[in-house]
Amino acid sequence: MLQTKQLGANLKARRIILGLSQELVAERANISRATLMRLEAGDGGKVEHLMIVASVLGVAGNLIESIDPLNSDLGRARAHLLNRHRAPRGN
């Protein structure tokens, strides 16, 4: 739960640094102010709403890039596993 609180706090801080009100961001994201407030508080919400707000704040690309498995040494080393449809059976 701590990570969602930090993510929400970072969204809020980004919005404030950009000088955008909750009302404006909510309007641009086509969500309610209450939904934005929940996201900023880290109290849940839809991934779709998170990504739309991240897009309004100009960080959607950063968020997507940060979880790309090929952006890590381990991910690149194990990239061959991405072609599998099922996990290998443990024997």
UniProtKB/TrEMBL annotation:
GO molecular function: DNA binding
PROSITE patterns: HTH_CROC1
Domain HTH cro/C1-type: 11-64
Coiled coil (UniProt feature): none
Any Pfam family matching the protein: HTH_31
Database matches in CDD domains: HTH_XRE
Top-level taxon: Bacteria
Name of the protein described by the UniProt record: Helix-turn-helix domain-containing protein
Taxonomic source organism: Pseudarthrobacter psychrotolerans
